[in-house]
Amino acid sequence: MTMAPRLDQPRELRRALLPRPHYDPESFGQISERIARFLGTARFIVYMTIFVGVWLAWNVLAPASWRFDEYPFIFLTLMLSLQASYAAPLILLAQNRQDDRDRVQYEQDRGRNERTIADTEYLTREIAGLRLALNEVATRDFLRSELQSIVKELDERYQRPSNG
User: Fold this and answer.
1) Which residue in 43, 32, 40, 71 sits closest to 55, CA to CA?
2) DSSP secondary-structure letter at 1?
3) How far apart are CA 95 and CA 42, in angstroms?
4) How confident is the chain (164 residues) per 10-residue block, as mean pLDDT?
5) Radius of gyration (C-alpha) of the chain in whole angstroms
6) pTM (2 decimals)?
7) C-alpha to C-alpha distance for 94 and 81, rounded to whole angstroms
8) SS3 5
9) CA 153, CA 164: separation in Å to the nearest integer?
10) How far apart are the C-alpha atoms of 110 and 65, rounded to whole Å?
11) DSSP letter for each residue of 60-95
């Protein structure tokens, strides 16, 4: 009786007949971003329009022996489908990489924002503490009024005849 493989344990590695191709995902991603960036430009649309226009003109206006894709233009359709089948995954890969960069940027912005809020709260507490301390410190006007009242009191004492 053979035991069924357990789902909570990884399978044993099988040796492949051919080695797996190795590629650098980072450089592949950069290339895909460059291609996706080019596919989203007006230059690409102009180039593609010229290419399709020349293709159609050649296969309609050229002598019959020179034509290689007659009227339903099946080969042109195949070429455009092939281009689209490669373009779509490259664009998705570029978008995923951009999403990853945006996520990292968002996390950095959020951390910076939290630090800014903490710094602002700290400065607010410090300013409030300074205001409280300043309320306890005698101001120039307060000292002036106190000194004037003392001078007035002293003047009154010296001007009063002594009863002695």
Assistant:
1) 71
2) -
3) 19
4) 73 77 87 91 96 96 94 95 94 92 96 96 93 78 89 88 58
5) 42
6) 0.57
7) 20
8) coil
9) 20
10) 67
11) HHS-TTT-SS-TT-HHHHHHHHHHHHHHHHHHHHHH
What is d(CA 126, CA 161) in angstroms, rounded to the nearest whole number? 54
Which of 16, 83, 12, 22 has its CA nearest to residue 48?
83
Instruction: Tell me the one-letter amino acid at 38.
Output: F
pLDDT of residue 12: 77
73 φ/ψ sector (left φ>0, alpha ψ -120 to 50, else beta): left
Per-residue tokens: 144: 């002036």
Measured in residues, the chain has a length of 164
10's tokens:
């990884």
